[in-house]
């Protein structure tokens, strides 16, 4: 079982002029991703760790190339 450890965080862009409701963490926490499990199946764990106010789903992941 291969793993990949990295720091994760979210950007609360629901109201870009008000950053007091959900302040960004000063130091993002570590999360261990498993390479044998699809990323979409691991997003719920990242969401719980961050206590993010966003809904979990595919819009969280931007995998479209920039044009």
Automatic annotation (TrEMBL):
Entries under Pfam families matching the protein: Formin_GBD_N (PF18382)
Superkingdom: Eukaryota
Gene3D superfamilies: Leucine-rich Repeat Variant
InterPro entries: ARM-like, FHOD1_GBD_N
Domain FHOD1 N-terminal GTPase-binding: 6-57
GO biological process: cardiac myofibril assembly; cortical actin cytoskeleton organization; sarcomere organization
A GO term for molecular function: actin filament binding
GO cellular component assignments: cytoplasm; cytoskeleton
Protein name, per record: FHOD1 N-terminal GTPase-binding domain-containing protein
Source organism of the structure: Sphaeramia orbicularis
